[in-house]
Design brief:
- The protein is elongated, with a radius of gyration of 21 Å.
- The protein has 2 domains: 123 residues, Rossmann fold (3-Layer(aba) Sandwich), CATH 3.40.50; 107 residues, OB fold (Dihydrolipoamide Acetyltransferase, E2P) (Beta Barrel).
- A 5-stranded parallel sheet has the order 2-1-3-4-5, sandwiched between helices. A 5-stranded antiparallel sheet has the order 10-9-8-12-11. It has a 3-stranded antiparallel sheet with strand order 13-14-15, with no helix packed on it.
- The protein is built from 6 helices and 15 strands.
- The chain is 31% helix and 29% strand.
- The model has no long low-confidence stretch (mean pLDDT 93).
Length: 238
């Protein structure tokens, strides 16, 4: 399990590294060891954010504070626990998502263990993310964030559930091949993939989504789409 510590107070950062390593050793063979990376500036922690199963953050004297870094991580799709360590900034005063937690400095071992239990539970129930590379940024989405994908020549347009449209320089075939383990994505034609969770109804020649879009249903995919849609309706009502 990889854990990132982003703290511009080097003494605090090193102390937390030592505490986490000790707790990792206590877990022994019952758990994967904690692999800990310490960062002293916000740019470094954003380099490979999806590598980590948790973030411990407290930046008070840098270009961005801990709250701003947490929001940057959330913006790109990070859903793992983000622990804001409270020293000079009281992060509890900010409006933060449910995957953000708080740890008071100086850190007490009992409180750290409570946070570690949250991290371990989240790790056990981790949901895979989909990497979306646009011209300007890289985002990470959960499968239910995506409603459908439409081919636009050598590009693809990914339509999210919040009506955002992301254009990526990748073919729709590549998207399907890279994410075919996620059975929610149904090819309804050679130019369109629809997330089964957003299908409202099917007919012989079309598929309609819950936001009212209709897509041509190619005969080569008809049987598979019918079957997967019926399976989704059956399992989602259980």
């Amino acid at each position: 399990m990889h854990i990132a510590i982003c703290d511009d107070n080097i003494a605090d950062r090193k102390q937390l590294e030592r505490l986490l390593k000790r707790e990792s050793d206590k877990l022994g063979d019952t758990r994967e060891p904690f692999y800990i990376d310490g960062y002293g500036n916000p740019e470094m922690v954003m380099g490979s954010p999806m590598l980590y199963s948790a973030f411990f953050i407290d930046m008070t004297a840098s270009t961005k504070n801990g709250y701003e870094i947490a929001m940057d991580l959330i913006h790109i799709g990070v859903t793992v626990p983000i622990i804001l360590c409270i020293s000079k900034i009281n992060y509890k005063e900010f409006d933060l998502p449910d995957n953000c937690y708080f740890l008071q400095k100086p850190i007490l071992l009992e409180e750290l263990n409570n946070i570690l239990q949250i991290i371990l539970n989240a790790f056990d129930n981790k949901v895979p993310h989909i990497e979306i590379r646009t011209e300007k940024e890289t985002l990470y989405a959960l499968e239910n964030d995506i409603m459908y994908i439409v081919s636009d020549g050598h590009f693809s347009k990914i339509h999210l559930k919040d009506e955002t449209v992301l254009e990526v320089a990748d073919s729709i075939e590549n998207f399907y091949e890279e994410n075919q383990q996620m059975t929610c994505f149904l090819p309804v034609s050679y130019k369109t993939i629809v997330n089964v969770a957003y299908i409202s109804q099917t007919s012989y020649f079309s598929v309609q989504t819950k936001n009212g879009r209709k897509f041509f249903l190619h005969p080569n995919f008809r049987k598979y789409v019918y079957y997967m849609f019926e399976e989704y309706k059956r399992t989602s009502t259980q």
